[in-house]
Amino acid sequence: MLTGIAAGAAAVFLSNQKNRVKTKKAVTKATKTAQHLAQEAQSNPKAFKKKIKTQGKKLAKKALSSHKTTRKATKPGSRSASKSKPPTKNK
After folding, report:
1. 37 Cβ partners below 8 Å, 6+ apart?
2. Distance separating alpha carbons of residues 86 and 67, to the nearest angstrom
3. CB atoms within 10 A of CB 88
4. What 3 state SS string does 22-55 have?
5. If pLDDT is split at 50, 70 and 90, which confidence band does 43 have?
6. What is the pTM of this model?
């Protein structure tokens, strides 16, 4: 079922000529980047490993620094995990 949904979404997206052009450019760029990285890894594996590890650490640090904690919204009258007064009944 999920495959059908994904295929349908792709068909709708790619039915537009502008989207097909953008997709082709993105695929071409990704292919060139992958080829460049593969050549770099083959030429000097140790330096490439160190470079990728450093970039990964920087990216993780950036992601963690921009991460904001949020509290879950609770329904009015429901008891949350925090200490709160139980709902009162009107007589």
Report:
1. 48
2. 33
3. 7
4. HHHHHHHHHHHHHHHHHHHHHHCHHHHHHHHHHH
5. very high
6. 0.52
